[in-house]
Write a structure and sequence with these properties.
- By secondary structure, the chain is an alpha/beta fold.
- It folds into 3 domains: 8-178, Rossmann fold; 185-433, N-(1-d-carboxylethyl)-l-norvaline Dehydrogenase, domain 2 (Orthogonal Bundle); 441-470, Single alpha-helices involved in coiled-coils or other helix-helix interfaces (Up-down Bundle), CATH 1.20.5.320.
- 56% of the residues lie in helices and 8% in strands.
- The protein has 21 helices and 9 strands.
- Strands 3-2-1-4-5-6-7 form a 7-stranded mixed β-sheet, with helices on both faces.
- Helix 8 runs antiparallel to helix 15 and helix 13 packs antiparallel against helix 20 (421-433).
- The longest helix is centred in the last third of the chain and has 34 residues, at 316-349.
- The radius of gyration is 25 Å and the shape is globular.
- The chain starts with 7 loop residues before the first strand and ends in a 19-residue tail after the last helix.
- The relative contact order is 0.09.
- 6-phosphogluconic acid binds next to helix 8 and helix 12.
């Protein structure tokens, strides 16, 4: 130990924590880690090279003592009870004005509770979503912090240095009070679920309808990644198709079990959207598809019970071209829904979110980074009060020129028994959102018929009830 105090502390030296702390140190801030696991502590010290730059200890008291004040302590530990346990352990050793930053995928209301509790003790608490996986943590993640604005000034230089850069601009910004940061990260993950579902069903379609090989899929997804679909998820998808299996002679993607797991952030996005009354069907169906995927045994039984429609020959090149357009269309719908959720949640929870700023910090570093986010940033910068991307003048031509391809593919999928739930839900969302008149007048009539729930009218103000039964 030296007497020198460290600029930044980090609890939880798993892959994310270790990478994040090394990133902090690479950017000129000395950092001190803490973990109960001695092996992890020693591994970090070894990798850090110089203990004046990166140090660590298993003892929380040594850790707290090593940090300069106000202490800036980031937690990269699993969301849930462990976060509370670490806070309780650190709290008696902290001073007023110290800062704890939870960098995990914590549920936003847990963050609100922790923030209020720590505020009473004079400690500032931040919920900061960190996106980009292990590589992002090491080389530059997108960081979504929320909490006390003044206290953020202490953290800002470190976060701006370690965050990913898009054309020189750091992919981090103070997002708002309380749990704003965790909430934004939750919706980021909801959009992530939507984009992943869409890329996977387009793969299914191309494979089933025109029998594309993994090699062809690799080429197509990488070509798409050089165009307007450029995004981290399309890029890694192209690489996945090229990955050989080490255990067999085949391609790895073909031997991976088709049951998708989930840790809950997509589901939380959907649940909260339902609570707030915001339609996010592309995200909802992405969650449901993971659930359907889990029913593999039942799916296998059912597969034998029902005949699949015969696949008609279809022009390969034309289908690939339509797939690119449809995927672009559906990506727009997924972002539109997520941004809409953020706008309404901001009003409901007092987050005062700046949607242009959020899109801006998603342009690099995070899992949903995509060329589209530069356009989304511009759209919200030009019209900060934009209710929905579909109302943005910049997006109208993008959607107009791709929606027909989505229609054709949805219709092809429906006719031929290829499930395209993300795409069809995106299309339905679009068709419903752009319909001046929906048949929900009939639902109002039904409600009033059987429950006297009343209805409003198009032609006059007021609330009405009819005695329907003659
Ligand atoms: C990120 C990811 C990250 C994690 C997801 C996985 O932004 O870096 O979103 O947070 O990979 O939470 O979520 P599921 O396990 O639910 O798919």
């Amino acid at each position: 130990m030296t007497d020198k105090k460290y600029d930044f502390g980090l609890v939880g030296l798993g892959v994310m924590g270790r990478n994040f702390i090394l990133n902090v140190a690479d950017n000129g801030f000395s950092a001190f880690g803490n973990d109960l696991d001695e092996e992890k502590v020693n591994a970090l010290i070894d990798e850090g090279g110089d203990t004046r730059r990166v140090n660590a200890d298993v003892d929380a008291a040594v850790f707290v003592e090593a940090l300069s004040k106000p202490r800036k302590i980031m937690l990269l530990v699993p969301a849930g009870k462990i976060v509370d346990a670490v806070i309780e352990k650190l709290l008696p050793m902290l001073d007023k004005g110290d800062i704890i930053i939870d960098g995990g995928n914590s549920f936003y209301s847990d963050t609100d509770r922790r923030e209020a509790y720590l505020k009473e003790k004079g400690v500032n608490f931040f919920g900061a979503g960190v996106s980009g996986g292990a590589k992002g943590a090491r080389k530059g993640p997108s960081i979504m912090p929320g909490g006390n604005r003044e206290a953020y000034q202490h953290v800002k230089p470190i976060f701006e240095a370690v965050a990913a850069k898009y054309e020189g601009e750091p992919c981090v910004a103070y997002l708002g009070p309380k749990s704003a940061g965790n909430y934004v990260k939750m919706v980021h993950n909801g959009i992530e679920y939507g984009l992943m579902q869409l890329t996977s069903e387009i793969y299914d379609l191309l494979k089933k309808a025109v029998g594309l090989s993994n090699e062809e899929l690799h080429k197509i997804y990488s070509e798409w990644n050089n165009g307007r679909l450029q995004s981290f998820l399309v890029e890694i998808t192209s690489e996945i198709f090229a990955q050989k299996d080490e255990l067999t002679d085949g391609d790895l993607v073909d031997v991976i079990l088709d049951k998708a797991k989930q840790k809950g952030t997509g589901k939380w996005t959907s649940q909260n959207a339902m609570d707030l009354g915001i339609p996010v069907p592309t995200i909802d169906i992405a969650v449901s598809m993971r659930q359907i995927s889990a029913l593999r045994d039942e799916r296998i039984k059912a597969d034998h019970l029902y005949k699949k429609p015969v696949l008609e020959a279809v022009n390969k090149e034309a289908l690939i071209e339509k797939a690119e357009k449809a995927l672009y269309f559906a990506f727009i719908m997924a972002y539109a829904q997520g941004m809409h959720q953020l706008a309404d949640a901001s009003a409901a929870y007092g987050y005062e979110l700046n949607l242009g700023e959020i899109a801006k910090i998603w342009r690099a570093g995070c899992i949903i980074r995509a060329a589209l986010l530069a356009d989304i940033t511009k759209a919200y910068q030009e019209e900060p009060e934009l209710q929905n991307l579909l109302l943005s003048n910049a997006f109208v031509p993008k959607v107009r020129s791709t929606v027909d391809a989505a229609r054709e593919l949805v219709s092809y999928g429906a006719t031929h028994g290829i499930p395209l739930p993300g795409l069809s839900n995106a299309l339905t969302y679009f068709d419903a959102y752009t319909s001046q008149r929906l048949p929900l007048n009939l639902i109002q009539a039904q409600r009033d018929y059987f429950g006297s729930h009343t209805y409003e009218r198009l032609d006059r103000e007021g609330t009405f009830h009819t005695e329907w039964e003659k």
